[in-house]
DNA sequence: TACGCGTGGCA
DNA sequence: TTGCCAAGCGT
């Protein structure tokens, strides 16, 4: 052990957390936790699912809406899946919403509405992986689980100046995190690690001068904090092209359909679309669901998904009020359009079709 | 093991 | 404009 770098102490981070913890809607503040206030496992679980790969700023409004609509796991289990998808629309990664509902159903039916209080029990539930199981066990049940998320990976890789790139470094990071996870206040420790990563030990321009773990941090000493964690370069995103068909009935209703339950935007709603491919035709209205006088919108809708760019040509047409929706489709009245389970890209397409 | 899976904010 | 990124999971 290099004598210049003492081991990072959990207590040092907990002292910092007691002074600087972020106030979040799903969190029991450290002073209340110390007085014996315990978190609601339902709220901890819901927040953890929403926060997967998603920013706190984006989650807040959805968390408030969900807990208003469905205050506990039994209420969510009693809900229609379609309503859950509508409430999740815009948040992204829609398999999370399907798994959220499946998990609520399982907890209500098989566990009498109580979440399991161990990592093993939690990780067996839909949508709960190793990170989320550890986080719920620690935060909701104060178990000394090793909680490793993207924040922890960044903090630990900097403290130890780990040269191994992610994801190969994950086993080392897990072991190093386990070694400093305390038996007392493990839930606050996990949340403190995330707050440190989110506020001081940030990806860009970390505020090392304010960090409670400045002394043990090798990257800080070398002035290279921002270069960790090491990562393999990412592949460039290809561009796919396609079409969307926005049919508007004379009373303003718009034709929608449901996407297949799995895969991209699985289970969400959309105006009819063509298949998307790099060389797809964007002017063949024979692919449209109805035989109408289709007109092309001038500006295509651009949208970027995780692994490709989409350039979608939007076609629009007026339909007579008597026209029936094809099998599997429905006319969504204009005043209900905002409440449909439309992902953001499809909201853009509908807006383009209505605006032209 | 590696890939598929959304979105919005920011430099 | 473009790339990068944010509390990962399922297959």
UniProtKB/TrEMBL annotation:
Catalytic activity: Hydrolyzes free adenine bases from 7,8-dihydro-8-oxoguanine:adenine mismatched double-stranded DNA, leaving an apurinic site
CDD domains the UniProt entry points to: ENDO3c, NUDIX_DNA_Glycosylase_C-MutY
Recorded GO MF terms: 4 iron, 4 sulfur cluster binding; 8-oxo-7,8-dihydroguanine DNA N-glycosylase activity; adenine/guanine mispair binding; metal ion binding; oxidized purine DNA binding; purine-specific mismatch base pair DNA N-glycosylase activity
Entry keyword set: 4Fe-4S, DNA damage, DNA repair, Glycosidase, Hydrolase, Iron, Iron-sulfur, Metal-binding
Cofactor requirements of the protein: [4Fe-4S] cluster
This protein's record includes keyword Nucleotide-binding: no
EC number: 3.2.2.31
Co-factor binding comment: Binds 1 [4Fe-4S] cluster.
Annotated InterPro entries: A/G_AdeGlyc_MutY, DNA_glycosylase, Endonuclease-III-like_CS2, Endouclease-III_FeS-bd_BS, HhH-GPD_domain, HhH_base_excis_C, HhH_motif, MIG/MutY
Residue ranges annotated for the HhH-GPD domain, each copy included: 50-199
GO biological process, one term: base-excision repair
Function, as annotated: Adenine glycosylase active on G-A mispairs. MutY also corrects error-prone DNA synthesis past GO lesions which are due to the oxidatively damaged form of guanine: 7,8-dihydro-8-oxoguanine (8-oxo-dGTP).
Family designation: Belongs to the Nth/MutY family.
Protein name stated in the entry: Adenine DNA glycosylase
Organism: Breoghania corrubedonensis
Source species taxonomy: Bacteria, Pseudomonadati, Pseudomonadota, Alphaproteobacteria, Hyphomicrobiales
């Amino acid at each position: 052990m290099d004598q210049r770098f003492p081991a990072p102490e959990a207590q040092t981070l907990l002292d910092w957390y007691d002074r600087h913890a972020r106030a979040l809607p799903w969190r029991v503040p450290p002073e209340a936790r110390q007085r014996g206030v315990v978190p609601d496992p339902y709220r901890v679980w819901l927040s953890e699912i929403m926060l997967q790969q998603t920013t706190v700023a984006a989650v807040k409004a959805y968390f408030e809406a969900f807990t208003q609509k469905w205050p506990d796991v039994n209420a969510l289990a009693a809900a229609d899946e379609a309503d859950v998808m509508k409430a999740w629309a815009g948040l992204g990664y829609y398999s999370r919403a399907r798994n959220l509902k499946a998990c609520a159903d399982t907890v209500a039916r098989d566990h009498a509405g109580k979440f399991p209080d161990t990592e093993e029990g939690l990780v067996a539930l839909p949508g709960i992986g190793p990170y989320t199981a550890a986080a719920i066990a620690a935060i909701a049940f104060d178990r000394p689980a090793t909680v490793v998320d993207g924040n922890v990976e960044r903090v630990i890789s900097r403290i130890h100046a780990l040269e191994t790139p992610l994801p190969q470094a994950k086993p080392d990071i897990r072991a190093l995190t386990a070694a400093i996870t305390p038996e007392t206040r493990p839930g606050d420790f996990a949340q403190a690690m995330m707050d440190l990563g989110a506020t001081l030990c940030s990806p860009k321009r970390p505020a090392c001068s304010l960090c409670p773990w400045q002394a043990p941090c090798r990257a800080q000493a070398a002035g290279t904090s921002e270069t960790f964690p090491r990562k393999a370069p990412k592949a460039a995103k290809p561009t796919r092209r396609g079409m969307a068909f926005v049919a508007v009935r004379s009373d303003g209703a718009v034709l929608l359909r449901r996407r297949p339950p799995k895969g991209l935007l699985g289970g969400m709603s959309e105006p009819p679309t063509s298949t998307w491919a790099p060389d797809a035709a964007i002017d063949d209205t024979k692919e449209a669901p109805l035989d109408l006088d289709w007109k092309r919108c001038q500006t295509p809708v651009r949208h970027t998904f995780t692994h490709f760019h989409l350039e979608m040509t939007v076609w629009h047409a007026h339909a007579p009020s008597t026209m029936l929706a094809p099998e599997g489709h429905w006319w969504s009245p204009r005043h209900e359009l905002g409440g449909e389970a439309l992902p953001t890209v499809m909201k853009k397409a509908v807006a383009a079709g209505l605006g032209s």
